[in-house]
């Protein structure tokens, strides 16, 4: 279907979570204000909503039961105001209005009761269709031009022609999972209109080890660890959570959350180190005291069986071999130098990170268009009137657990409602 020279009130570029949400909120606000609006959504991918479908292991982690500005990285003042405009409670009610019931799991993550991401995508698309929002896949936007003179609005050029729109919402995503269509081109569109873009790096991404240690032998094993990231000798982050050993290195929630600090420092060519304490909450001295007690109480017990009380046995065995200790050695017979080396490795293990796993495996983008360049009340550009920027294209990234989706719903709500109200005022 051609859109040559068609005219719209709102053109949304990107049919992901933020773009679809903004379209729905704009259309609903227009109906409430007794003013119809022509809304079109353009997406470059042949199939829309890929990121929604793959999120949360195919279940779509819609949001989290507790969302605060500290769960995000970026301008916390602006993030606080955006999140306050559309709460988790509002998200739950909104999805209920779309016919989707959500459930909260022990982790605090909220999923559809169906455990199917398709439920979320279908509900969003169906609501768009019911509201008369036109969605066109395989319509990649190539450029956006401001209309000159008193004629307000934009010319949106795409692979099937050109359309005119009074308002434009950029919801193109970042650079994560480029096969979904979010390949970073949205940044170029924004830059051509006058916006800046801070350095973008993969975030919520697994990390690849250089060389071979024992990670392949442990592939599939999950355990708790306290991760500390050190940049140029200064601690920049410390967090505790579940780590997953893989054939290429490490993954799991705690690694994904910490990854942005490594990727940012690496991008800036800084010296970055990541250390793991596999006895979370314990110092090396505390671990030593415990070990010495074990040596007194159970002198004949092997290193392997002793440490298996605190860490997974597979990991205990691998670590013993790594520091060149025989796991069968009785604890009372372990030389002091071997004991100290083992304790040092247990509580401050240097992860031999070579690189991150890349954009194809990153769940989100760190960096993007500065939040200071948009109004946090409306998500409208401070540089280009009538242009709105929402979702992942902005320099804001949340930790794993549904936080980035909450950001998408909130920015979609603010932009959609603001545009509808603005257009309503213009038609009076």
Task: Give a topology summary.
Elements: E1 6-13, H1 17-32, E2 39-42, H2 50-54, E3 63-64, E4 72-73, H3 76-85, H4 88-97, E5 102-104, E6 109-112, H5 117-130, E7 134-136, E8 141-146, E9 154-158, E10 161-170, H6 185-192, E11 201-203, E12 207-209, E13 222-231, E14 234-245, E15 249-251, H7 253-267, E16 272-277, H8 284-297, H9 303-307, H10 313-322, H11 336-347, E17 349-350, E18 353-356, E19 364-366, E20 387-389, E21 397-398, H12 403-426
Parallel strand pairs: 1-2, 1-10, 2-7, 10-20
Antiparallel strand pairs: 3-6, 4-21, 5-6, 8-9, 9-10, 11-19, 12-15, 12-18, 13-14, 13-16, 14-15, 16-17
Helix pairs in contact: 1-5, 1-12, 3-12
Structure description:
The chain has 428 residues and is an alpha+beta fold. The chain folds into two domains: 6-201 and 360-426, FAD/NAD(P)-binding domain; 206-357, no CATH class. 33% of the residues lie in helices and 23% in strands. It contains twelve helices and 21 strands. The strands form five sheets. Strands 1, 2, 7, 8, 9, 10 and 20 form a seven-stranded mixed β-sheet that branches. Helix 1 (17-32) runs parallel beside helix 5 and helix 3 crosses helix 12 (403-426). The longest helix is centred in the C-terminal third of the chain and has 24 residues, at 403-426. It is elongated and about 85 Å long. The two termini are 33 Å apart. The mean pLDDT is 95.
Identify the notable features of this structure and list them briefly.
428 residues; alpha+beta; FAD/NAD(P)-binding domain; 2 domains; seven-stranded antiparallel beta sheet
């Amino acid at each position: 279907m051609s859109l040559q020279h068609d005219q719209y009130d709102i053109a949304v570029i990107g049919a992901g979570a933020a773009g679809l949400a903004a379209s729905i909120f704009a259309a609903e606000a227009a109906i409430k204000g007794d003013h119809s609006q022509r809304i079109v959504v353009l997406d470059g991918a042949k199939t829309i909503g890929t990121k929604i479908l793959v999120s949360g292991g195919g279940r779509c982690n819609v949001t989290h039961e507790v969302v605060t500005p500290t769960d995000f990285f970026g301008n916390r003042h602006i993030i606080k105001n955006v999140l306050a405009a559309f709460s988790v409670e509002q998200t739950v009610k909104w999805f209920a209005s779309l016919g989707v019931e959500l459930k909260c799991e022990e982790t605090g993550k909220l999923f559809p009761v169906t455990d199917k991401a398709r439920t979320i995508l279908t509900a969003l698309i169906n609501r768009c269709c019911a509201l008369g929002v036109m969605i066109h896949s395989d319509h990649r936007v190539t450029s956006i031009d401001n209309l000159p003179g008193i004629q307000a609005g934009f010319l949106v050029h795409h692979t099937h022609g050109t359309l005119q729109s009074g308002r434009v919402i950029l919801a193109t995503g970042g650079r994560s999972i480029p096969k979904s269509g979010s390949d970073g081109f949205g940044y170029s569109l924004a830059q051509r209109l006058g916006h800046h873009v801070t350095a973008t790096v993969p975030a919520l991404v697994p990390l690849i080890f250089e060389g071979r240690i024992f990670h392949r032998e442990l592939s599939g094993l999950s355990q708790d660890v306290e991760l500390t990231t050190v940049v140029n000798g200064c601690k920049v982050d410390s967090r505790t959570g579940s780590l997953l050993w893989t054939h290429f290195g490490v993954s799991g929630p705690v690694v994904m959350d910490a990854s942005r600090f490594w990727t940012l420092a690496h991008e800036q060519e800084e010296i970055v180190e990541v250390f793991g304490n596999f006895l979370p909450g314990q110092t090396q001295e505390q671990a030593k005291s415990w070990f010495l007690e074990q040596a007194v109480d159970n002198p004949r017990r092997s290193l392997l069986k002793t440490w298996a009380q605190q860490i997974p046995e597979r990991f205990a065995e691998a670590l013993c071999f790594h520091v060149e200790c025989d796991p069968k050695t009785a604890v009372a017979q372990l030389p002091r130098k071997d004991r100290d080396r083992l304790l040092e490795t247990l509580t401050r293990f240097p992860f031999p990170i070579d690189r991150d796993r890349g954009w194809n495996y990153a769940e989100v983008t760190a960096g993007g268009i500065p939040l200071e360049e948009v109004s946090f009340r409306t998500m409208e550009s401070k540089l280009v009137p009538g242009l709105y920027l929402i979702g992942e294209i902005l320099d804001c990234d949340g930790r794993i657990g549904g936080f980035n989706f909450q950001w998408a719903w909130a920015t979609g709500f603010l932009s959609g409602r603001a545009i509808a109200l603005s257009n309503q005022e213009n038609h009076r």
